[in-house]
Amino acid sequence: MSLPPEKASELKQIIHNHLIKMNIHGKIRDVLAETVREDLDPGRSSLSEEDILRALQRRGIVDDVMKDLHFSKHLKFPHYCSVSNDCISVLPANVDPARRYLYLQVLGGKAFLEHLQEPEPLPGQVCSTFTLYLHFRNQRFRSKPVPCACEPDLQEGFLLEIHREGLGDGSKMADATTMLSICDPVHLVLIKRDTSSETTLVSSYFLDWRTVLSSPSGKTSIAVELHGVGSECKVTAGVLNMSLELYPPPSEILSPDIITTQRSLERQKTAEKERLFLVYAKQWWREFLEIRQENQSKLVKIFAQDENGVNRPVCSYVRVLRAGRLLESPRQAARFVSLLGLEKAPVVGGGGGGKQEQWCSLLAFLCRNKGDCEDHATLLCSLLLGFGLDAYVCVGTKPKGLAHTWVMTRGTDSTITFWESLTAHRYLHQAVDPDAPPLAPQPRPSYPYRTVGCVFNHKAFLANCQPSDALELCAFDFHNQSQWKVMSEEAVGSVCSPGSTTSLPPLPPLCGPSLEPSAASNQLELEMRYLVMEHRKDLGLATVWDDHLSYVLSSALAAYELERCTGTSCGNEEFQDAVRRAVPDGHTFKGFPIHFLHRNARRAFATSLRSPFCDEIVCCRGDRVRLAVRVRVFAYPESACAVWVMFACKYRSVL
After folding, report:
1. Domain that holds residue 146
2. Shortest CA distance to 52 belongs to which of 69, 35, 37?
3. pTM to 2 decimal places
């Protein structure tokens, strides 16, 4: 265990003070005098260190010193001591003794009945796993993956700082009353990952930790019943045993009745705000329908169900989200969002076209690393708002009447840009003039959207009340009340602004990339080379690699990713010149680039071979055939990654 110098000095001082309090020096002198009289042999002139230690142990001095030291055996990280009420308690290292912490420990799970018949995994066997994610007051944690079982062995400890403001200010120690007023829950998200690395959202749970404030010791144990998601939100998914402990223990213990009353008041306040907003929304909707009859068929969505089956205003799914140093520009943010997988919420039995509406809280979406188009659009809109753009989520349809959501930004010059969150493509909107002469030139829309019913962000909701909801005919002058019916910003803010209600999920920060791109690229490239060699061996073909040609392919892959991020192509001339130099006269070069959102080599290789161009390269026959493969992994926040692979070959042309 290593401690910073200031902590080491503090620890020494604590031990010194404790020994003085016990009058340890006087006790040692008495033991020494007694030992010299009774135990010192006539032929020896001095006592060894071992003799003194044995004497101290025999007379119980060591036990007396240790009996006031209380060690928490469950803590899995380095510790240091702090003195309180004549007692030394062991706290986690990196803990500021002037701050208040909540130590949340998961002590295992039970009753995950879906995995009742799950066989015990053999050592080294790949199996499905559970991972628990936590978010509390801008802090995020995750557990180690454990094998899925009826009683999963989830054993983890998480140290959560309760008071985040004024870091380093010792006067800000949160007392019991302050902690009672902190209504931020601990958001728990349980994710299952199967053997093919596909993720499934098992449960999303909001834990009110304030029960620990009524515990005399500042520590309590609880059993958390996790429910399923979507259509299974009323069904128990499993139970997690937990313990909650405050560091340092509060000097004031609150009555359980006080905590119950506080929760009840918060619920009543939230319920009243939600009731008033619902009354307002109903009146607003009636007024909207009275404007013109066509409004009844427009796709106007005021509420949406989250993963727990709770109806929330759609504006509450959008927040101003700043990514710090993790994302450098709005276009890079769009690229990041597009790298998160697309998955529609399934319906048991496949009813309703196999799709169930389910908008996810941001933490559940990020932990699962995939979601529906609504999840992508609300995340992209939040990030664009963080970059200072005037961004909105659009709800409308694509061709064939399929419901869809995308993002729109309004420039200061009234330029309207559509952002497709699933692909990071951008489209400029130019409205068609329906009153123009028949032969007058009209702009041809390039976007894949047909209609728009409403737009919204974190503080505005507007419904399209123009004669037609066809996107190519729509104008986006939000100040024109004959074109857009606007909800009261005050009404929206009463239930959607941060801290307005206790039912709003807290906004989690983005986490940085979890992989090292160079190492991941090298590993995946080695696996790809092996698969190519094995495939050619099955065909009776030898494989000779051209390492220089493989390296030359790097610039092309970097240019492809840069183009996806910025929309600008560059570096192609240098790549073409390098290839010409690497391929001798009389030889033919063929290359095939392909893009993936995962790092599974076998899946990627199988997908690549479905293309006849790639198959032609990998199975190339001829004179002086040389093969090359290059892999580049580009890391983004939240474990998202863009994987580019290029297969290439060169061979001498023989007529």
Report:
1. 100-164+172-254
2. 35
3. 0.82
